Amino acid sequence: MANYTAADIKALREQTGAGMLDVKKALDEADGDQAKATEILRVKGLKGVTKREGRSASNGLVAAQVDGNVGTLVEVNCETDFVAKGEKFVALADRVLAQAVAVEAADAEALLNSELDGKTVKEVLDEANATIGEKIEVRRVARLEGDKVVSYLHKTSPDLPAQIGVLVAVDGGDEQTARDIAMHVAAFSPTVLTREDVDAATVENERRVAEATAKEEGKPEAALPKIIEGRVNGYFKENVLLEQPFAKDPKKTVKKVADEAGTSVSGFARFKVGV
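User: That's the sequence. What structure does it adopt?
Assistant: Structure tokens below.
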């Protein structure tokens, strides 16, 4: 029997982030030698990178950094929440975020192709993929500039890293209002800033659905235009940030709150892990 203990298994799992069975097999093969077992996990992991390409990476974290009037938001994914809360994965995500800031990446492709310590970020992720034994990827990157940019990170579970991340750019006003709006974005998940940002095809489809629904409900023909307009406006109130009822005061829209604070929202980004 290999010369290792339960404490050795625990230590190697924490060091590599690999699964229990993989760690035990590696320690068996290495006859309990931690360093050799780590190398075995890495080699076998590299062989399995291609096999993991099709697997779902729906766990992970979001991370953000604001420097002056520029904010960067990244989503780094893995397969399980066990890995997501591990020190190795969190440290890797911190490196990825720092790299995104350094190269001013505005999308995942630019970040993955950038060079980090003599390798592309994609290669760095593949190596981590090999060691940890899970598919690891950068799903999204956002870069936001404005007169003032604030970030907000929200944990949906106390034992996991942040699962929702928000950047909000504003012109004028105070930072507290901007931060309140960022928290609102996290909670109410708007999809666009203004109704003009909604795709015309989407608006037309909402009109068709509203008309068909009203007719199905037996609404009078003369009332249809008003009913359709009301339901389309309802769609805008649900999806357009500036038209949403403000989280802290639902009697006011986000735009009203911003106007009263002497600020205007110029942009936002919101990521939720796996969504």
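The radius of gyration is 24 Å.
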